[in-house]
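Students often ask why we bother encoding 3D structure as a string. The short answer is that it lets us treat folding as translation between two languages. Here is a chain of 250 residues written in the first language.
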Amino acid sequence: MMNYNELDGYKLFFEKVFPNMSDTDILNELWNFANTSLHKIEYPKAGEAWKDLKQSIDERSKGINKRGNTVYVRTFGNKKDRESEELLRCFYKHVYGIDFIKIDNSNNQKPTSVLQKYTDYSKKNSNKKKKLVNYQISHIFGKTLNYYAFAAPWNVVYLPQILDPFTGHESKGFLTREFTKKLQKMMLENYKDMIVEYNKKMESIFTDKIKSFKFQKEALITKFGKDRVEKFFDEIDKNFSKIELPKEEL
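And here it is in the second language, the structure alphabet:
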């Protein structure tokens, strides 16, 4: 439903630049550009990337440490906030009994390396890859605290930076909402089997562990503070939830 008391900065811009285009027309043009300019990990390399990620998690969770199987996630909250990082580590240790995650210091180093390895593109100069300029790494479903999603081939793409305002990270409104839906629909259609497997892992590994972790709320508040713990509980619900599939795929 249209909110006539709302001023959307993006819509105002497009109305000025393209006065004869409707919101739907603008959305379609944005999507046409995105669909032809973004770069994702294609099959069969996507299958290899997903297999490698799962193997690294399995090995690390069993205490098998070797070169190349480090498991990365993005930190919770401000990356300079050591207590928030410790809280995230505390959660993973509760799930597995050991601390084996590594925080991605740049927030995108691992997803960047995965995209570079399994696509024909790179953000750096390379003799073997096409260099991308004014592109960024985008997480289509978010879930950057979740090691099954942070660098997963079904969740990361190279996206032109000019499209960033429409990916939903820091913006709202019709264009952001509908553009994000289109991105997620594309990934769901391309990587259905992987996402189904991801959903099963969330249920089998994390559902009960999240509940038991939350039973420790008072002790966690004593150690980390009420605001931080309550915010973290909200984040783990978002980051370790299942991804909704189209009705016919349920």
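Translate back mentally: The mean pLDDT is 90. Keep this in mind for the problem set.
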